[in-house]
Design a protein that fits this description.
By secondary structure, the chain is mostly helical. The protein has one domain. Helices cover 80% and strands 0% of the residues. It has four helices and no strands. Helix 2 packs parallel to helix 4. The longest helix is centred in the C-terminal third of the chain and has 29 residues. The radius of gyration is 21 Å and the shape is elongated.
């Protein structure tokens, strides 16, 4: 491979591979849902450099909190 081959197209592929992924991923989304505190931590650690990841973690944490409250209310209502 000559130096021209590297400069003609392969260099842009190298720099594109260095970009952070914009999706949070299933394991961290599930973690954010099940443990909302973890979702909040993930949100604040990603909000500056990867807003889509941060929003996904925030929405999953909020959904987990809402579901937890709903389950708690149903459980309390059923026990009385």
């Amino acid at each position: 491979m000559s130096n021209n081959d590297f400069n003609n197209g392969n260099q842009s592929d190298f720099f594109n591979d260095q970009q952070p992924e914009e999706e949070l991923g299933v394991p961290l989304t599930i973690l954010s849902f099940c443990i909302p505190l973890a979702g909040i931590i993930i949100y604040f650690s990603n909000k500056g450099r990867s807003p889509k990841k941060a929003n996904t973690a925030c929405y999953a944490a909020l959904a987990g909190m809402v579901l937890g409250v709903v389950i708690r209310v149903i459980t309390m209502a059923a026990s009385h």
